[in-house]
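Translate structure to sequence.
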């Protein structure tokens, strides 16, 4: 936890650097206001429309020269898919909040028959302009084209992975530079990953999210620069494997990589660019929820002994694995020891920002409250969060199961009961285009999130939603990242692959029979609970809200929940390794959250939840 302060201080300084360049950002009209009549979180009042979400967006690869482009952009909704940018614009939108959201100031839907366009005129900071200029997008849903000064600079498909475009050659002389972004997103009417978004929200399906929904920013880099790093800990060997992707390297260039514990340098190695570097971490301090210790990492490119580029990052020494207990049942191990993993299903939705938390404080709030309630894990449910969310999980100490956002649903049957078959098709027959979209974005997500030690499990499929070629996808994932466990299809159709056997059951706590399924795979309850309690004044709509099991008051809710926790405690000695309770917050008409959708009410006291949960971590397995 001590390391958090240092890195956050750096982020604050970098944020101030950006704010000092305020004259570079187009002025937000005074008329900006959240739109609509739905509930809002308390943080909506704290948004600075001149510079929303000003924090440095990439805490695991930090450079000093950057410029935030969040704020007021022009927008237009035009008929048809992407093509020629419109000649006129409809008004102002507050980036990076999706156009359908209240905080965008627009609150309009787009749909598959229209495209969304953004335009902004900026002045690039003079220090950035002296270097190569990269334009970064945290996330844009789904397909986009980027134009700089009227020329197409690049394009991207994928609503959940960050991407960058080198726009140096597209900049013109003078102060003003025009950026135009076109977006097309068919929501659930296309084959692409879309998570919980649907054209007609209902039940467990929510409002569409179209366009830019994470920070947009510029970065200045030298001609030869570090584009990415990959850190993989090996706890058993007390080593850290580091790989670095370097753009425009020259023969003879070297990498210098050093690990730091506070002000103490604990390891340093120099190698040729392109080589894997192994750092020996003696007396390694291991990361866990009870000790979320993070080391600092410095990566430099040297040319004839001179540093020509340098970035800072961080890492943790942490191992996630499986191993049999005394009864021969596979267990989920953290740093070679069994630790029961328990956490909420976290949708990551906001009543005012939809996919986007109103402020960085709000983004951190959910993680902090989850930890305060006594959970040690979060299942991030068919959504990917901004980089800063994972940093908070790393530094606060919460393990993460990361889902792949689902898409292209239908066409296959879901057999919820393992070992039972109806003879119907379990794997969906996807088109070649649909398969390619999935594989491309899943790999991009794995790459983008690899360095976050809090992530301990990958989940390629949820239930049977779009589930296809399960064995092939699971085994590819296991091979691509052998440093983590893979839960092939949480609650979905079971195939003999992956590390985990995962069932869903509402509302009661149950588990797969260990004598049948525990010899080869870890046994988990991937979803259960769903206890609903609507709180008047804090619901998405006034009536027709729902939970898997609904209650009239807090006392009823507490008694039922406490009973579920006791049931879990009885299952752990039998072989249960983890459980996921539905869910962190209410979402739209779902009221089965531990907190209301606006986060203004925590339905059961944090201290009581924390106390009840301790029995799960103290339960003996032998």
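Result:
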């Amino acid at each position: 936890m001590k390391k958090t302060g240092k890195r956050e201080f750096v982020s604050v300084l970098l944020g101030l650097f950006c704010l000092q360049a305020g004259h570079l950002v187009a002025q937000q009209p005074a008329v900006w206001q959240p739109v609509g009549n739905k509930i809002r979180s308390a943080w909506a009042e704290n948004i600075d429309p001149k510079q929303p979400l000003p924090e440095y967006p990439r805490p695991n690869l930090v450079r000093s020269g950057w410029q935030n482009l969040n704020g007021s952009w022009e927008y237009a909704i035009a008929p048809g898919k992407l093509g020629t940018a419109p000649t006129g614009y409809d008004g102002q939108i507050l980036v990076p909040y999706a156009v359908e959201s209240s905080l965008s100031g627009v609150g309009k839907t787009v749909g598959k028959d229209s495209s969304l366009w953004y335009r902004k005129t900026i002045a690039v900071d003079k220090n950035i302009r002296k270097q190569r200029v990269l334009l970064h997008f945290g996330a844009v849903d789904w397909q986009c084209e980027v134009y700089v000064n009227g020329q197409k600079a690049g394009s991207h498909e994928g609503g959940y992975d960050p991407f960058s475009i080198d726009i140096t050659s597209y900049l013109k002389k003078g102060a003003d530079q025009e950026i135009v972004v076109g977006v097309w997103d068919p929501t659930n009417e296309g084959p692409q990953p879309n998570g919980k978004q649907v054209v007609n929200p209902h039940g467990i399906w929510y409002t569409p999210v179209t366009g830019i929904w994470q920070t947009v920013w510029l970065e200045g880099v030298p001609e030869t620069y570090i584009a990415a790093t990959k850190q993989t800990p090996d706890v058993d060997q007390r080593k850290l494997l580091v790989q670095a992707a370097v753009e425009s390297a020259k023969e003879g260039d070297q990498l210098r990589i050093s690990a730091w514990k506070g002000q103490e340098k604990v390891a340093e190695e120099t190698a040729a660019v392109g080589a894997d570097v192994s750092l020996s971490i003696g007396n390694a301090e291991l990361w866990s929820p009870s000790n979320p210790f993070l080391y600092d990492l410095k990566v430099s490119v040297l040319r004839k002994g001179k540093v020509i580029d340098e970035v800072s990052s961080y890492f943790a020494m942490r191992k996630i694995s499986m191993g049999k207990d005394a009864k021969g049942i596979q267990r989920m191990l953290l740093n070679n020891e069994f630790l029961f993993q328990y956490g909420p299903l976290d949708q990551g939705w906001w009543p005012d920002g939809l996919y986007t938390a109103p402020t960085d404080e709000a983004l951190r709030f959910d993680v902090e409250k989850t930890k305060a309630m006594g959970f040690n894990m979060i299942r991030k449910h068919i959504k990917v969060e901004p980089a800063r969310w994972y940093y908070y999980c790393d530094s606060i100490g919460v393990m993460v199961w990361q889902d792949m956002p689902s898409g292209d649903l239908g066409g296959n049957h879901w057999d919820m009961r393992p070992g039972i078959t109806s003879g119907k098709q379990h794997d969906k027959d996807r088109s070649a285009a649909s398969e390619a979209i999935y594989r491309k974005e899943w790999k991009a997500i794995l790459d983008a999130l690899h360095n976050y030690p809090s992530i301990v499990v990958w989940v390629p499929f949820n239930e049977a939603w779009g589930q296809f070629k399960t064995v092939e996808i699971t085994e590819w994932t296991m091979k691509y990242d052998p440093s983590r466990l893979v839960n092939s299809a949480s609650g979905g159709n079971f195939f003999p692959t992956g590390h985990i056997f995962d069932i869903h059951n509402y509302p009661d706590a149950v588990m797969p029979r260990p004598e049948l399924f525990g010899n080869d795979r870890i046994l988990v309850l991937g979803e259960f609970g769903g206890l609903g309690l609507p709180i008047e004044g804090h619901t998405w709509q006034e009536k027709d809200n729902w939970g898997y099991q609904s209650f009239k008051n807090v006392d009823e809710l507490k008694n039922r929940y406490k009973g579920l926790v006791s049931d879990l405690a009885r299952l752990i000695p039998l072989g249960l390794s983890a459980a996921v309770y539905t869910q962190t917050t209410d979402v739209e008409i779902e009221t089965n959250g531990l907190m209301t959708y606006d986060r203004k009410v925590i339905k059961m006291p944090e201290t009581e939840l924390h106390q009840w949960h301790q029995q799960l971590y103290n339960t003996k397995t032998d």
